[in-house]
Every structure is written in C-alpha cells, then in structure tokens.
Amino acid sequence: MIRFALRQAKTCRQRFVDATQHPLQRQQQQCRNLMDARKRPSHSQMYDKNGNFIQQPTAGLTNDSSMSNTYYAMLLATRALQAGCLVYCITEYVCDITLCEGPSMFPTILSEGEIILLKKWVRNMENGPIGEERSRLARQQQVEFEQQTGLVDEWHAPVVSVSNVPSPSLIECFNEILFNSTLAVGDVVVVQHPLRKGNVCKRILGLPGDQVIQHGGSLLIVPDGHLWVEGDNPNNSSDSRAYGPVPASLVIGRVLLRLWPLRGDAWMKRGGRPKETAEQANSGGSVLPAGYEGQRITKVLRQHA
User: Which of 86, 123, 203, 230 could lock 239 by a disulfide, CB 3.0 to 4.6 Å apart?
Assistant: First the structure.
C-alpha cells in the first residue's frame, strides 16, 4: 500500500510538472526519460530476492556505441566524397587556380611566377571557328565602317595595346566571368603544349582565317579550329612561331586575373602586347585579320601621358 501511494503521489506530481512546463521543454524531458529507460535496467534486474545488487552486462551499450560510431563514420565519408566531387567539377569545368612562371609573358606576368585565376568554360571563338565565315563577317563589318565614316583605306578594327585599354568596371568584370565564354584576339590563355608534356601561357594573336606574315615573307593562314599564340616578350618566348598554330581543343582556360602578388592592375585585359618597343614588335610575328584587303591598320601601342 505504501509503495502504491508513493507511486500515485509521484504520478500526480509528474502530471502537475507536465502541465506547467512549456511544450518544448516537455518534449525534451520525454526524450530524456525515454533514453534513460532504454539504458537503465529495471529494478528486478538490478537486485535479487535477497536485495543484493546484480552486475549487468554492457554488451548492449557497446553495440549501440559501435553502431553510432559506424553511422558517423559513414556520414563523414559521404560528406567528404560530395566535397571532393564538387571541387573536381569546379576546377575541371568552371575555374581553377594555377601558377604561371617564365619569361615569355613578361611584363604581363613576372618571370618569378604569379598565381592566376583561369576560367575553364571557354571553347567558342569570336565570329566562329571557320576561317571563311570569319572573313565574310569581317568584310561585312568593313563595308559598314566605310559607309559610316567614309574611310575606305582604313581597317575598321584598330590594334590597341593593353596599356591603352581602360580597366573594366566591377559590372564588366562580372559580365566577363559569368556570360562571356568566347575566345578573341588579345586574350591571355593557358594551353597544353602541342609537342611535349606541360602547359604554356600565351596571348592569342590570330584566329581562323587570320594571316600570319612569318620571317622571310612567307604567308600562313591560321586553319579552322586553331589559334596563333605568342608571348608578350617575343624575344624570349617559344610559341606558335616555333610549333605553328595550336588546336583550340588544347586550350585549358582563359586567364581572368592575377591573384598574387598584389601589383598593378590584376585584371588580364584583352588587347595587344603591352607597350611594345620597335625591336620587340619586329621580333614577333605580324598577324593580319581575316578579311583584310590591304587597308591601313591603326596601332595604338603606348599609353598616352
């Protein structure tokens, strides 16, 4: 009777506590009671008939702990696999960070090496990969230029050095990163070397249909689906002058900006070689645009004071 009365009193007290508790606190208390009930053996299991304490085996608790450790290990492995797949997809198809070193791109990229950001989804070419189509579009633009300006002896697209290209605004940078996926003359790209293992960083000077005047006066037409690339330091650069046009399929990505070191303008602007001297200009290959028919091409090489 005494045990029954005590149990009833405890039940009434618990009901009173439950009624006055916040619903969230009541739910938390019920969860704790349920966990304690699972872990704690019953009274009849703890003591024998004589009132002596009985040592309970802990095999069940050990199994529960092992199952919990296995679950968290599998969860951690799954998260690590997902993170690895995400990093691979980003660096393979979206963008990547790499080290570029060597004298061929000086002064755009220092010989000691600089860390650059590559944009990977660039496979299309400005005005297409077919030389005849690019020539047709260029001649059409030339006719429109002559009709608007009356300058029949001047080419419609001047060659502007990156030294004269203004720094893009923040909105223009976002547009280049998110929406512009084409390769054009003046872009700095990283390509796989066509003759050996390794990558090189060069500037695009010619697209399909462009005419390259090589040393000795020979003329080479950049074939369809290829690029003509040269370094910004032509006196110390092994480029298309040595191994010819490069297939566009070897392009790894376009260089968007310099991450390190922090110097000058970090954005890799589209344009001609920076501040070329007459000696450097003569040592590089001369590239004439597709559709060119003897007009005068204006070159802006130096930055105005």
Answer: 230
